[in-house]
TrEMBL record:
CDD domains: HTH_ARSR (cd00090). Residues 1-96 form the HTH arsR-type domain. It comes from the Bacteria. This is Helix-turn-helix transcriptional regulator. PROSITE patterns: HTH_ARSR_2.
Amino acid sequence: MMHSPPPDLDRVFAALSDPTRRALIERLDAEEELSVSELAAPLAMSLPAVMKHLDVLEKAGLIARQKVGRRVGCRLTAGPMEDAMGWLARYQRFWTESLDRLAAALETKG
């Protein structure tokens, strides 16, 4: 029986599948906000394009935005990424155990 990730994880994995969104995530910190302009500065794309990427990240729960006056600050929210890591950890254990069994089988034959 195939187990699929919960819908929230689908959003997280979809959001992280894009290299621009991963670059935005890498620049963010959970404790210090960066403005949208600061996040957009190193990217070779328009501010509206960056905003669309930020929308996807926010819908996935990976970032939080806060508007104060004219400034929109963004910060990382790590919870959804931790959930994704927990889901992936099951498969890491599977592959580790499988490779350990393979190594043991090869050692007994050699």
